[in-house]
C-alpha cells in the first residue's frame, strides 16, 4: 500500500561525535503536539517518540562517525535518503532543508520540521534515537560527558577533547579551530 507523505529529517549533522541519524515517517493517524524536535522538551520528545512509533510506518538509519569520516556527510545523507525511500513506499518524500543530496524524488522544504507534521515526527524519531545512543556512549566513555552535550561542540566538550584526545566515536575529519595548534 502506497502512503501519501513520508516526512524525513535528521539529527546529528553538526556534532563532532556520534552518528548521523535520519528518520522517515508516514503517520497513520493524527498526533497532537508534533513540532520541530528542537522546540520540544526532552520529556515531551520521549513521550511523542513512543506515540509516533505506535501510530506510523517509520524507518530509522544510523550512519556511524567512521563512515562520515571516510566518505563524508553528503554521502551519509544521500545513502540514508535512498534507504528510507527503499523501505517506505509513499507518493511524496518531503525532506527538511534545502538540498535533496542528489536523490531523485525527494522534495525539500526549508523549516519543514515546523510546517509538515510528518517531518516533525521524523525529526523527533531521529533526535530521540540519537540522544539515546549518546547517553549509552556516555557509559562507555564517561570522561567526555556525552549524556550532557550529546557530542555537539560545546566549550566543555572541546576542553575534554583537549584533555583526553579523541575517543572511538569522535569524527576526526571535522576540523575545529579551537583544537588546532597555535603559534604562541
Q: What this model shows, in words?
A:
With 184 residues, the protein is of the alpha/beta class. The protein has one domain: Nucleotidyltransferase, domain 5 (2-Layer Sandwich). The protein has 7 helices and 5 strands. The protein has helices spanning 42-54, 65-71, 73-87, 112-115, 117-140, 146-149, 155-164, and strands spanning 3-11, 20-27, 56-63, 90-96, 106-109. It has a 5-stranded mixed sheet, with helices on both faces. α1 crosses α5 (117-140) and α2 (65-71) packs across α3 (73-87). The chain is globular and about 50 Å long. It starts with a strand and ends in a 20-residue tail after the last helix. The mean pLDDT is 93.
Q: Could you give the topology of this structure?
A:
Elements: E1 3-11, E2 20-27, H1 42-54, E3 56-63, H2 65-71, H3 73-87, E4 90-96, E5 106-109, H4 112-115, H5 117-140, H6 146-149, H7 155-164
Parallel strand pairs: 1-4, 4-5
Antiparallel strand pairs: 1-2, 2-3
Helix pairs in contact: 1-5, 2-3
Please give the share of residues in helix.
40-55%
Strand content: 15-25%
| Uncertain stretches of 5 or more adjacent residues | none
Strand order in space, largest sheet: 3-2-1-4-5
- At the fourth level of CATH, the homologous superfamily is Ribonuclease H-like superfamily/Ribonuclease H
Shape: globular
The CATH class turns out to be Alpha Beta
- What is the CATH architecture annotation? 2-Layer Sandwich
Terminal-residue CA separation = 64 Å
Output the structural class: alpha/beta
* Rg computed from alpha carbons, rounded to a whole number of angstroms: 17 Å
